[in-house]
Specification:
The structure is a homodimer.
Chain A: H1 2-5, H2 18-30, E1 32-33, H3 37-51, E2 85-87, E3 106-108, E4 121-126, E5 132-135, H4 136-139, E6 144-152, H5 169-173, E7 176-185, H6 186-193, E8 201-206, E9 214-217, H7 218-221, E10 226-231, E11 234-235, E12 245-247, E13 260-266, E14 281-282, E15 288-289, E16 298-303, E17 315-324, E18 330-336, E19 343-345, E20 347-348, E21 358-366, E22 371-379, H8 388-395, E23 408-411, E24 417-420
Parallel strand pairs in A: 4-13
Antiparallel strand pairs in A: 2-3, 4-5, 6-7, 7-10, 8-9, 8-13, 10-11, 10-12, 14-15, 16-17, 17-21, 18-19, 18-22, 20-21, 22-23, 23-24
Domain Oxidoreductase molybdopterin-binding (chains A, B): 115-269
Domain Moybdenum cofactor oxidoreductase dimerisation (chains A, B): 289-407
InterPro entries (chains A, B): Ig_E-set (IPR014756), MoCF_OxRdtse_dimer (IPR005066), Mopterin_OxRdtase_euk (IPR008335), OxRdtase_Mopterin-bd_dom (IPR000572), OxRdtase_Mopterin-bd_sf (IPR036374), Sulfite_DH_SoxC (IPR030835), TAT_signal (IPR006311)
Amino acid sequence: MTTKQKGNGASRRQFLTGAAAAGAGAVAAAAAKASGPDPLITEMQDWASSTGAGVDATPYGMPIQFESDVVRRNVEWLTADTISSINFTPIHALDGTITPQGCAFERHHSGAIELRKEDYRLMINGLVDQELVFTYNDLERFPRENRVYFCECAANTGMEWAGAQLNGAQFTHGMIHNMEYSGVSLRTLLNEAGVKPEGKWVYVEGADASSNGRSIPLEKALDDCLVAFKANGEALRMEHGYPTRLVVPGWEGNMWVKWLRRIEVTEVAVESREETSKYTDTLANGISRKWTWEMDAKSVVTSPSPQAPIKHGPGPLVITGLAWSGRGAITGVDVTLDGGKNWQKARLAAPGQSKALTRFYLDIEWNGEEMFLQSRARDETGYVQPTKNQLREVRGLNSIYHNNGIQTWWVKANGEAENVEIS
Amino acid sequence: MTTKQKGNGASRRQFLTGAAAAGAGAVAAAAAKASGPDPLITEMQDWASSTGAGVDATPYGMPIQFESDVVRRNVEWLTADTISSINFTPIHALDGTITPQGCAFERHHSGAIELRKEDYRLMINGLVDQELVFTYNDLERFPRENRVYFCECAANTGMEWAGAQLNGAQFTHGMIHNMEYSGVSLRTLLNEAGVKPEGKWVYVEGADASSNGRSIPLEKALDDCLVAFKANGEALRMEHGYPTRLVVPGWEGNMWVKWLRRIEVTEVAVESREETSKYTDTLANGISRKWTWEMDAKSVVTSPSPQAPIKHGPGPLVITGLAWSGRGAITGVDVTLDGGKNWQKARLAAPGQSKALTRFYLDIEWNGEEMFLQSRARDETGYVQPTKNQLREVRGLNSIYHNNGIQTWWVKANGEAENVEIS
């Protein structure tokens, strides 16, 4: 049967229009032609009987064994020891926009900790009318909000600055996830404590040994930040900050403090390690940019890509990827097959939502020749995703963080893809 | 410290307005008052050291051990054997709208089967210009769509017709989930085969031993149905139909055929077992309603509920639940504390989306007295969720399917809740 599947002969009909039309046609060719019902029915019967009786579901269902490669991965040489670690979302194998918690990237500086709800406390102190400590049950008594947001590590794609050319979207762009959060507005809790007029910042820290303290301007803290209990409906995974984490929409992931323990209202920024020696961007002249919190508009083609090669010959091909912006909604994504000479408008699976992932598609008729695939995102502020070289011209080569440059995949005639740079 | 947490004294401030204001106040009281920073800081230090160094995340992250009760459950006496089984989503413990695949309800008639993508075939036959068989790779070459839809079993809440009064929202309303699906429009595949003018229905069947064949009017098949590969971004779990399942938005879950194997275009409905002896609604006069595909507007309070009792005294209380309609978007949800004498407008976490779950909240100041909690949904067609007795008056007591009657939780002064009926 498999041999019969291989594209033999051209399409007999053209129901669909445009690129998809040619596509559908060729797919029809690729699909087996039924020479009368008998061979088909026979195969169906063999197959049905071969499946036989099945099994029951488990109380908490895991992915089927055939998908065991769709997991978070680390870059072996990236971290010195396993206690200061990171892993990447397998975005090359996912579709849609929601990231399941089980394969959502995760970064910790002193390990993920097991914190019981009964032991959990959240303190608000500093420049407030009254210092407060909340239990988990206290937090559950405040009005809740639900919203889908992306969380991207500032170092996502960082190794590409100097041209590491890691071979897969999971490794170049996998330090991102997109989940539906449920929790309490940080504004609600700060208002409860009463912020004094001289309060201009909040310093947030976690209960892990690193504490990962970060300073956030009061304006942002009173805007759209959440103290989240749940992601995609269920409790946060241990490594995502159970029982609560801070959600700082559109801003770099390091500020999304996990195992949230304390919120101190201060007059000035604390200038902690995580916002001075780390998470600052050193320019060519040696001066470092700081307070680079917002994640710039960015996109990447997730398939085809090095980990998701084309498995068929010429004809219809679905090109897909993700786009996002920390400044609002994605308004458009362009895709090029020839390294930027010609751009086509991609189809957004749904209108862009502010500070959340947007899925895009481009359905083409692949001629079977090599392609230099790129995607370019545009957000509601009018900002357009730059090339890597445009970024380097402005920021030099010392940077690690905030690389939102356009990614190139060299897709060869045999369907395999490589991470390359073109000038 | 824990004793210090217990509500001592009234709120010192009223930042928030309305019910939330009183709520916030009482929560402030419940939270510990800081008598100088020392005791707090001391506790924080003990606690930070007690957490110590953590561990790394696993390639595929499972829920933390403390959440081991948030799993799918069966009603022991419900099914005769384990090969014809069902399990329920723990909606009492979830928030937001997305259901994680791992705890999403699942029903199968002959067990869940393990089907490899390489072995998978989808046949389209019957009244078409050309019969076709697609491999999984063929399907991936057609244009894809993404959309969030709820899937509810027609038998959800069915045992309440005769007043089973199962003690928990998981058991009364847990045969539902809500996921973001990615796949190919069924319309695209039918157009590829070419539906003949005399084709008026499609008969869809799965690859499991039950085949679970169902007839679907061609209008619906050409409207919004999907052949889905993925749910919430990742491959379908085995028990959800890996590698593909049919998505029939707004219609009863039994039609969402899993392990989708064949789509036959027919002139008339097949009248299979699953749409005659099963999934029809026998009225008081013995006549059965058939083709009752659409799921009527419905809602339920998920917390507080029998499995999610109130764990605190009088004061701020978050009442939350889910609402949905197979006919379009939810436009409003009302909640009553006194069994229907007085209704209050609940807050929708986001505007209702067509054929998807909507999360609602009502933030109240609980007086500590017993409540008879109910919720009532309204959809964009103007339809209002009826009481159980209104349903019984029209359909009698023989029905099993399509019970969308208003649910009552008797919440006692001690915070515990029971499933009751009030006339």
